[in-house]
Every structure is written in structure tokens, then in C-alpha cells.
Amino acid sequence: MDVLDIARWQFGITTVYHFLMVPLTIGLGVLVAVMHTMWVRTDKPEWLRMTRFWGRVYLINFVLGVATGLVQEFQFGLAWSEYSRFVGDVFGSLLALEALLAFFLESTFLGLWIFGWGRIPKKVHLATLWAAVIGSIVSAYFIIAANSWMQHPVGVVTDDETGRPVQVDFLAVLTNNTALAAFSHAIVAALMVAGALLVGIGLWHLRKRKLAGAPTTDAEHAVWFRSVRLGGWVSLVAFVLVALTGDWQGKLMYEQQPLKMSSAEALCETEAPASFSILAWGKLGSNECDDVHSITVPYLLSYLAHGDFSTAVPGVNQLQEEYAAVYGETYPDDPSFGDKAGEPIDYTPVLAVTYWSFRLMIGMGAVSAGVAAYALRATRKGRVPTSRVGVHGSLLAVAAPFVANATGWIFTEMGRQPFVVYPNPDVPVEDQVWFFTAQAVSPGVSAGEVWTSLISLTLVYGALAVVELWLLTRFVRAGITTGDGAPVPGSPPEGTPDDDLPDGRDRTDDVLSFAY
Amino acid sequence: MDLQTLWFAAVAVLWTGFLLLEGFDFGVAALLPVLGRRPSDRHLMLRSIGPLWDGNEVWLITAVGAVFAAFPGWYATWLPALYLPFVLVLFGLIIRAVAFEWRHSHHTPAWDSSWTWVITTGSLIAALGIGAALGATTLGLPIDADGNRVGGAFAGLGWPALLGAVAVLAFSLVHGAMFLALKTDGPLRAAAGTFARRWAPVAALPLLAWAGVVHLRYGTTVTAVLWLVAALALVVAWAQIVVGREGQAFAAWGAMLVAAAATVFGAAYPVVVPSTIDAAFDVTVADASVSDYTLTVMTWAAGFGLPVVLSYQAWTYWVFRKRLTAEPVHEEPAEVPAS
């Protein structure tokens, strides 16, 4: 593999990994803040216990999101320096604003929340969590605005001398319709992740307690029961919003990146009315879409693309020709394109990836909504399900929205190849800004260097995943009676100090034992 | 002052702020095996930086973000030129961050000591790597006319990198000790004070040497004065820690860093990445910067955002201003039943 391929693998692995943490951080952050708010408003102990239990899950995960996010900020420069030079006038300022306006907020106030129990007034303490949660949402906004600018560059003109985009309208970059659609889609998808977690773990504890004959009147029962109800409703409502925002995003994509959407459907030839593909077989991997056959629903694709049942949807073959006519049959014979110089350009993304990632995204989202509906039905009027299949299935299905989120990003990123900055079709061709992925990689960096970082980061990430999963599983299994042995913050000492702690810490008195 | 100069100054302030703030949590973490002999001392040390380290680290993220935002030419030349050191820094920062959090998520002596070791190692790697990157950058990298490094993966690493690495780490160690002397009480306070007293003069030498070399190479009268201020601050810091005025010692030691960093950045301006191949290939503020429009947008955003950030960060330091002791912290009885 050459530097370009290794760097792409590195970007893919580190970004998808980072994006496993992000939706959980955002979604669970919102839900923990809601729980904490409910506690402050009602003073009911079960809300406090929920806040503390889910707050710990949030924190165990949060830090991994922060740590892996660091890599993202550096790797644009490390492996993609030509990209950084090209987009510097727009992209860097969004990253810097994320750090300044969002990430400081998130990190500083999360520190205050963790250590502020019993130290700052109750309502101010609640506000610190909301500040941190708002920080993470604003942070997502800036990052998605930066990514959306690559998908659909707006607010720039081309500098005649350097050929690079120069920003002329910052507000246009911030209100890019691609960004607004992608941001709303990502935020509600994050709530699905958190909802599924609450449902899966809550049901598992409820069933375990019921089989053990535990009472349904105590605080612990209330914690799990409310978690399931809250998570179920959040998941279900979020799913509806995911579908609506996804439809919005899809319609934009048909205008802005038609090849991405046609590849998602393996739609070879232009069709009017166009049918939606449910399942495809054949040689999807050959990237020749004529080898693909699929089961289709007539008219549906026209509707998804344009909102009516008859409009033509362009096929991959036609689009490939159109793009080749405008942007060239082959890469320019220029050293900046490395091995790709002079090679023919394939404007069709890898069909197998776009086709299946799109289906996995939608399918896993639907699984998640199904589980939420099951959980809400199974817990109606205070019932507790004992079905092994239903409950264990719900626990397994915690993974579903994670898969949906990851495949959604894989789809949107792989689907815009071979461009890293996709030409904006709303702009006349002569004024368009675009950049091929092949010319984005750092020219001075050797394959050995990128291999070193790819292998070391992957190994470290793998090890961290093992520890995180082990910690989370252990903590979640223990539940709120033993796993969360620290007392209610600010409560009077109860019983004798626990001398087993290795630091000689005093569990009952140390308010910081909530987190540290 | 034009916008490019203003943003050069902003980047310099962000890097200095990062070294000043994260410097003490790097130092505390690196000193865990030295000063944290007993488990309760280690716990106290970690608690002293617990609420602060993550906010401190954002200074680094903002500093790098500001380099990218205001000077993409600097960002795109600098990071790939020092690819492996930066990857090492990331590695250190990742393992240190998760270790801070995960150390307290499970309780066995082996778990605690493993993650303590990871915190120390990660902090050492990060401090050394960032120092190496800054040292190599201020004294020159093998950059060609296109801003790309020539000569292979290790071409940027020589004595300036070593000097920068030692300077940042040594500064951080004493900075951490001074912070502990200020923030804790009991035997740990005394041990940290002793460490700072013993090592302050030695630990300041690489930093002063680095600033001195940069000044001699590129400096002006102003940077000469700044360097003298740094040297003077060292004398004050040492004198104050000897007499046990921990707050003033910590402030003076920090002032030394600020003056030394100002010497370095002041002498380097307007070059952001000097080329060791040919001075004509130097990347300057003017070559590297974005358009005036983007700088104007950023200036407005920073003009509103930075005072807010500084106020709530200051509030954090205020909330956690009390000295920590190994004694348990007693709180007001709560209004909720401890069920």
C-alpha cells in the first residue's frame, strides 16, 4: 500500500472509533442532565441514583472520546498536509472555534460537575452539567459544519493565484444546509444510542431482579424501571426524527452528491420513475454496477430523492460519464498526485461499501426502534418482562444504534470519493472548488511513518476498547447496590469507613469518591 | 498591529498558557513515583489536579487549532515534519487521559499502581514530545521550498529537540512540585517544597538555555530584556520557595516560563518554521496565514469567546482553591436520605 491508502485506513479506523464514543457522550450526556434536573426538581432519591449510575457510565466513556478526539485534530496536519493547506481558509477556523467555544466549555464544566458534588450550590452544580452537555453539542455542530463544507463547499471563491478557496461568507459556512441536516441527523442518532443503552441494561436488571424475587417497590426497582421507560421513549421519538432528518439529508444528497445516492441504491441506469432497492446480489464488489441485481420497490426512490413518484433519478453509469466530462477522465499528470498521476479516475465510490453501509444504517436504526417499542409495551402499567429472548435481545441490541451511527459515517465519507472536497453543483463549474483525495496526503511523509502510527494507534485503541468494555460491563453488572458503592454525595456518614480501599480512602466521607 | 501579528501573538499566548497550566499537571503526574510514596499521597496528588487537567489540556487543543485556523501553512509544514514525535505525544496524551479516569473506576492495588504508572509514563512522553517539537521548530527543521520535510523521519531531531524536551520536562517537574506545595498540606506539602527548593535552579537551566539560544540566533534588544526577566523570575521563585512562600514561588516560577516563552516567540517572529536548508525556505507569518476575512471572523469570535473561557476557568480554580489534605472532607448534611 502507498502512503495514500495507509493514511486513508488510518483516518477511517481512528474516525470510526472516535465516533463510537461521540454519540454515546452526546446522547447519554443529555439524558444524565435530564435525570439530574429531575432530581433537583423532585428530590426523589431514584433520580439521584439514576444520575449517579448513568453519570459514571457517561464518564468512563467520555474520557475515551476526548482522548481519541485529540488524534483527529492532529491528523489533518500529520497525514493530510496538502488537504490542510488547501482548505486552511475555512476548515481550520471551524476546528479552532470548536476548541474555543465548545471544548473548553465541555471539559471545564465537566470537571466542575465531577468534583462539585456538595461543594457548589445544588442548582449551580446542575448548571455545570448542562454547560458541559451544551458544550458537546456545540462541538458536534462545528465539526459537522467543517465536514459538511467538504461535502458541499459554500461561502468561498477560488483564489486565482493559488487555486485555493478563500472564505468570503462565514455565515454561509455555518448555515450550510448540508451541515444543518447532518447535524440534526447526528444529534437524534446520538439520542438513540443512549436510549438503547438505558433500555437494554434496565431490562436486564429488571428481569434479573424479578427472577431473584426482589421487591418491585424499592428504589433500585424504580431506577431500572424509569431507565427503561425514559430510554424507550427517547429511542422511539429519536427514531422518528432520525427518519425525518435522514430523508432531508438524503434529498440534499441527491442534489449535491448524486453519485453517492445512486451508489447507495446500486442504480445503474437512469430510471423514471425510479425504484428503491431492498436487497442486491451479484458482483457488487466488482464496482461494475451492471453485474448487480436487486429486489426493488417501484416509485419509492423517486419519492425519496425528490418528493414525488415520477422524477428521473440518474444512474451510476450516466453520472460517471457526466463527472468524467467535467472533472477529467484521468488524474492530472502532476507529481502532487503521486502514484495516481495520469491514472483514470473512478467517480463511482466502492459500491459494496456504499450499498451495504446504507442498508445497515437504516436496518440497525429500525432494530433499535423495534426494541424500544417492545420495551415500552413490555413495561406498560408497571409490568416487568421475563422473556429471555426479549430481554437478552434488547441487551444485544444496545450495539445496533452504534452500528447504525458508524455505518452512516462510513457511507457518507466513502460515498464522496474520489473527492475529499466535493464540487458544489449549485456553483458554475468554472467557479467550483474541489480537491481529489489523491492529492490531499502529506507529500513529505514516508509510508513507514504512517504505518508506524497506524499500527500503534490501532493497537492502543484495541487495548483501550478491551479495558473500556471490561470496565463498563463490570460496572453495569454490579448495578447500583454494589457497583456504585459511594454514598449519596453530601450525605452524613453512614456506618464505619471502608478500609479496603487501596489508597486508604474513606468511602463514606470522601465526596470525591463519586468519580475519583 | 496587523491581524497576522495579532494572531501570531494569540498563538504564542495559547502555547504559553498551555505550558503554564498543563505544565503543573504534567509535573504532578510525573512526580507520582517520586513524591507519592504512600497511597494516600498519590491520591492527594491526583485529587489536586483532578478537576483541572482536562481544562488545561484544551489549551493545547486550542493552540493547535489556532495554528491551523490562522496559519494553515505553519500547521501543514510543522506536523508532518515532526510526524513521529507528534504521534508519540498523542500516544502519551491518550493513555494519560484514560488513566486519570479509569484508575478510579475499579479498586485493587494492582489496578491502582498500573494506572498510576500509565499516568506518569504518558505525562513524561507528552511533555518530552511537545518540548522536542517546540525545540526543533524554534531552531529549524529541514524544510524545502514547498514546505515539506526532507531527509527522512528523524531529520528534524537533533540537539534543539533534545534541549526543548528537557526544558519542558524539567520546568514541569518543578512547576508540579510548587503546585503541590501550594495546594496540599501535611507531609506532602513539605516534600514537594523540598523537591522544588532542591531542583528549581537546575531545572530552569535548559529552559533559559533554549530561550537564550533562540535569542542569540534571532533576537532583539526586547528579547534580551525578556530573557533577563526570566532569569530574574527564577531567582525570585527560588528565594520564595526557600522561605516557604509557596504562592509567590509558584507565581514567580510561572512568570519565568512566560518570560522565556515570550523570548522564544518574540525572537522567532515573523518566522514560524525556520528552514535549516535555506533561509529563503523559512515559513513566515505572511506565507502561512489565512485571508484577512477569515482572520477578522476569528478575531471577533475570540474577542467574545476568550473572556468567557478565561472567566469560567478562573472560576474553576476558585471553586477548588482550598488546600487539600489527606483528612476526609466533611460536608454539610444533605437533604436527601442516604438510601
From TrEMBL, chain A:
GO biological process: aerobic electron transport chain
Primary location group: membrane
GO molecular function: electron transfer activity; heme binding; metal ion binding; oxidoreductase activity, acting on diphenols and related substances as donors, oxygen as acceptor
GO cellular component terms, A-Z: cytochrome complex; plasma membrane
Subcellular location: Cell membrane
Key words, A-Z: Cell membrane, Electron transport, Heme, Iron, Membrane, Metal-binding, Transmembrane, Transmembrane helix, Transport
Keyword Transmembrane helix appears in the UniProt entry: yes
UniProt-annotated stretches for the region Disordered: 483-509
Topology in the lipid bilayer: Multi-pass membrane protein
Membrane-crossing segments per the record: 20-41, 53-71, 91-115, 127-150, 179-206, 227-246, 356-377, 389-411, 450-472
Family to which this protein belongs: Belongs to the cytochrome ubiquinol oxidase subunit 1 family.
Record-given protein name: Cytochrome bd-I ubiquinol oxidase subunit 1 apoprotein
TrEMBL record, chain B:
Membrane topology, record value: Multi-pass membrane protein
Record GO biological process: aerobic electron transport chain
InterPro entries reported in the protein's UniProt record: Cyt-d_oxidase_su2
Protein keywords: Cell membrane, Electron transport, Heme, Iron, Membrane, Metal-binding, Transmembrane, Transmembrane helix, Transport
Coiled-coil residue spans: none
Pfam families: Cyt_bd_oxida_II
Protein location: Cell membrane
Keyword Aminoacyl-tRNA synthetase annotated: no
One Gene Ontology MF term: electron transfer activity
A GO CC term attached to the entry: plasma membrane
Superkingdom of source: Bacteria
Listed transmembrane segments: 6-36, 57-76, 82-102, 114-137, 157-178, 224-243, 250-273, 293-315
Family: Belongs to the cytochrome ubiquinol oxidase subunit 2 family.
Protein name: Cytochrome bd-I ubiquinol oxidase subunit 2 apoprotein
Species this chain originates from: Blastococcus colisei
